[in-house]
Amino acid sequence: MPRRKPAERRPQRRKDVRHGEPGDAFRCVGCRLDVPVTAPGTAHRNHCPNCLTSRHVDHRVPGDRRAACRGRMAPVSVTVRDDGEWLIIHHCQSCGGLSANRIAGDDNALALVRIAMRPLSDDRLRVGALLSL
Amino acid sequence: MSGKEYPRVSTHKTRQVLTDTFTCVRCGLTVTGAAPGGGRRNHCPSCLHSLHVLDRAEGGPSECGSRMAPISIAVLRGGDWMLIHRCTRCGELTSNPISGDDNQLILMRMAVRPLAEPPFPLETFGDL
């Protein structure tokens, strides 16, 4: 299948912040999968490609590692940038913080579509949209 | 009065809560501050835009004060629906509960938009 976005893409910014934990892998707090940091399609992987769970380590700037929370962040929704890139919105289970991260090339497609379909699978939105026409 | 406590209109403070309004920064609609469910409203029901007045990361009032655009609908584990806003100036994310009179067409558009531009072919999910 041909790519849907053949346009030239801006290269991602280099990380200029110091990360607290050196290493080339992290373990997912949700499913205990060992995940390598290098990912196809993104330079800023912060979630597990299998269950999409992340961890609350960044405070305000992505990569600053200044959050004291360290809670589990569950994926709650999917949004789209203007250029068509998908972002996952994570919601911290212990402090309620939110963060957004671009999806990687090896993320679980079924899990992504399940999150994207969650508001549509409820009758409230469908009925409400039809009634407001 | 049994069960739910209704606010008395006699005091100055409750009257202010019941009658205060704000003007939407994007579409200019004058919106009442009280939502139909009884809670407080913080986004325009017509265009769903909000204003960055609360700092979520640090707590307290925010210095930014610019417009926040709705980007997606989140369904939490308890079944609550939240509207995710992103500040157009500083990029901070906030979540607010959806009220009953929010524009259903814009909500539907935000829910459908990821599926309209999928990064992978959705045809394979028909087999599952």
How would you sum up this structure, described in words?
- The longest helix of chain A is centred in the last third of the chain and has 9 residues.
- In chain A, strand 5 and strand 6 form a beta hairpin.
- Chain A has two helices and six strands.
- In chain A, 14% of the residues lie in helices and 22% in strands.
- With 133 residues, chain A is of the alpha+beta class.
- Chain A has a four-stranded antiparallel β-sheet with strand order 3-4-5-6, covered by helices on one side. Chain A has a two-stranded antiparallel sheet with strand order 1-2.
- Chain A has one domain.
- Chain B is an alpha+beta fold and 128 residues long.
- Chain B has one domain.
- In chain B, the strands form two sheets. A four-stranded antiparallel β-sheet of chain B has the order 3-4-5-6, covered by helices on one side. Chain B has a two-stranded antiparallel ribbon with strand order 1-2.
- Chain B starts with 11 loop residues before the first helix and ends in a 12-residue tail after the last helix.
- The mean pLDDT of chain B is 82.
- At the A-B interface, strand 4, strand 5, strand 6, helix 1 and helix 2 of A face strand 4, strand 5, strand 6 and helix 2 of B.
- Chain A: Pfam families: RNHCP.
- Chain A: This is RNHCP domain-containing protein.
- Chain A: InterPro entries: RNHCP (IPR024439).
Low-confidence stretches of chain A: none
Number of alpha- plus pi-helical segments of chain B: 2
Shape of chain B: globular
Average the pLDDT over all residues of chain A and give the rounded result: 84
Q: From the structure provided, what is the oligomeric state, counting identical versus distinct chains?
A: heterodimer
Order the strands across the largest sheet of chain A as they lie in space.
3-4-5-6
Class inferred from helices and paired strands of chain B: alpha+beta
Helix percent band of chain B: 10-25%
Overall shape of chain A: it is globular
Can you write the helix and strand succession of chain B as a string?
HEEEEEEH
From the N-terminal CA to the C-terminal CA of chain B, the straight-line distance is: 54 Å
Q: Strand content of the residues of chain B, in percent?
A: 15-25%
Percent of residues in helices of chain A comes to 10-25%
The most extensive interface, with participating residues per chain, is:
A-B, 37 and 36 residues
Percent of residues in β-strands of chain A? 15-25%
Total strand segments of chain B: 6
Mean pLDDT, all residues of chain B: 82
Strand order of the largest sheet of chain B: 3-4-5-6
